[in-house]
Amino acid sequence: MPFGRAEAKTRFLHSDYAVDVASTSNFRHFRVTHYHLDLDFDFEKKEIKGTADLRMTCLQSCSRIILDNHDTVSLGKVTLVPSGRSLPYECHPFSPYGSALHIFLSCQEGDVFTVRIEFVSGRGPSLNWQEPEQTAGKKNPFFYSVGFTTTNRTMFPCCDSPAVKATFSAFIKAPEGFSAVMSAAYREELGGNRFFFKMDHPIPTYLIAIAVGEMASKQIGPRSKVWAEPCMLGIAYAEFSGAVERYIQLGEKLFGPYIWERYDILVMPPSFPFGGMENPCLTFVTPGILVGDRSLL
């Protein structure tokens, strides 16, 4: 029998009916298509103050939007953009994963709208504030986020489920002398220690990653940079320069074009407890990979 003609039977996917036990969001009723974050980092208070704009499309008529949140996130006003209409909300217990943010907004199938949420976060398990002693340079603190697998809700309210993929953009305000990087294809330095990021490929929220600290970078290929603390940059450059592009081209021969535009590497402080964190466009790696002969690449 020819291949692919064994049986003409319809097979249904289960993803449209599967329950994500780690998420409280009612993402069957609406879809987040874009997140826009505006975040201000305060290292003295170990706080992130900001807003999250969620652009949504209603899939089924409903009377409320339910998002994943966490008790460590303090919420301010919730409004419709651009009208500024205030939206009432409540937080309900959910599980050790976090809490449920109920925003009361009636919508009909096909409605498109943007909700803005003001918040302050900083103490959640995805947010890592490193003291100077935990860095290679020993002079300045360092921040990084790890949203895997369900913890980016501790940074901002969201649909924290891999079932929901959205694009994102962000303005990041860092302390004087610090840089910021994100898991995004586009990065721009705006002046005044503000940075803009944009990701046009839809991703689940757990892959939105941020690092803020004293960092510098060098080009290691036509679509790659290595980032590191200044005292580690020379060693990191020697380890990665030229090698990353060869691996990307090898992957393209096997699997087709690399669609993510950039593949940058951030060498983390020595206190980073993982071997690596493979975020889109920006992989966090342990400095233990820098052995001088590229044998661990």
TrEMBL record:
- Please give the cofactor(s) recorded in the UniProt entry for this protein: Zn(2+)
> Can you tell me where the transmembrane regions are?
none
GO BP, one example?
proteolysis
The Peptidase M1 membrane alanine aminopeptidase domain covers 249-293
GO cellular component, alphabetical, reads: cytoplasm
Keywords of the record, alphabetical order, are: Cytoplasm, Hydrolase, Metal-binding, Metalloprotease, Protease, Zinc
- Chain ranges of the Aminopeptidase N-like N-terminal domain: 33-207
Among Pfam families, the record links this protein to: Peptidase_M1 (PF01433), Peptidase_M1_N (PF17900)
Q: Does the keyword Endoplasmic reticulum apply?
A: no
The source's superkingdom equals: Eukaryota
State one molecular function term (GO). Answer: zinc ion binding
The places in or outside the cell where this protein is found are: Cytoplasm
Q: Which residues form the signal peptide?
A: none
Q: Which InterPro entries match?
A: Aminopeptidase_N-like_N, Aminopeptidase_N-like_N_sf, M1_LTA4H, Peptidase_M1, Peptidase_M1_dom
Homology family: Belongs to the peptidase M1 family.
Q: What is this protein called?
A: Uncharacterized protein
